[in-house]
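Subgroup meeting minutes
Present: P.N., E.W., G.H.
Scribe: E.W.

1. P.N. recapped why we're keeping a running log of single-chain structure predictions: easier to compare across weeks, and new members can see raw inputs and outputs side by side.
2. G.H. added today's entry (173 aa).
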Amino acid sequence: MKYNRTYTCHDPQIYATIVFMILFVISALSSCKHDDGPNITASDIAGAKFTGTWVVDNNYTNSVTYNSTESRTNYYADFSVTIDYTKGQNGGSYSTSGGMESNSPWPVSGSWNFVSDSPDAGTFQVERDDQLLMDVSIEDEAVILNFMFDEDLNSGGRVDALTGNWTFRLIKQ
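Output recorded in log:
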């Protein structure tokens, strides 16, 4: 005896099989790990833009100003600062050369950290290891560093003529 069974769209076994397959596929897809790649923070983005060797833009008359009006560019014509950032550490190190090394608001080297928890990639504030707060603005291949240097707070035994507002407009080398 031969059984001839035909399946139609109304067959409950077909529905059960289709539902089972759909649930299986959904379950399999939802259990897959979704990898967004490396965890890149706002600090990492800003740190990457800040990293590099920056030199005085000698084509710009007021690349270095003191108290907003006095150009000191000629004293810092060969000044450079090399900034390093350590990913995931919220800061890095720096080293300087040239300029007024013995009478400068810049130590020869030191470390720095971001002040805010989530710095914008173009504008942020850092603190040097001598507790000097510095506003940083990065535009294309130029960085503007603005800070108030206080002789009593930021160094020991330097000339009082350094105390004041400083702005360094530097270009990436």
